[in-house]
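task queued by scheduler; priority normal; single chain, no ligands, no partner chains; default sampling; output format set to structure tokens
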Amino acid sequence: MIRNLATGVDGFTSNVFLVTGDRDVLVDVGNDFDVVARVREHVEDLDAVVLTHTHPDHVGNLGTVTDAFDVTVEGYDIDVPGVEQAIEDGDDIVMGEHTYTALHTPGHKDDHLCLYAAEPAILFAGDLVFSNGGFGRTDLEEGDRSVLVESIQRVLETVGDDLDVMYAGHGRSVQTDPYRNIELAAQAARF
């Protein structure tokens, strides 16, 4: 099961997804709200934290989460404070009941990852793309619009048009034609 623990939170935070099953994983930890209490409403413990990237709105609660759960933090760049285990491009990661492939997708931030499970066709998009053709900012440090466009194209080539759901780092999840939303983001990012 996948739950957005940041639903209803007002403030500077990302979405925070609790993926439960064989391996209980928190995808991003958000910022500026009591994510530990929200995790404990559903599970006693966590097996891992997986970061899509390390902007403050996605990792602000990291110390609180690691203190509460004594959990390993996985991300693309172990040189970033708090990231303990590297996830390389193409690595397989079990989250919940499914195996996800890590896709290194820079452009919004150098350490950005998307996570894709071919079965059951789920994408955690982080801040690469959002609903209705939105895409991640490239005006921040490490942002690069042309690299972002390449990353979006890579995701399009990887996921296929049978994508069932896209969980974005901000805003709503996309359950109706998520592939088309990514296509729209690719078009918009080119201009």
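post-processing summary
- The chain has a mean pLDDT of 97.
- DSSP finds five helices and eleven strands in the chain.
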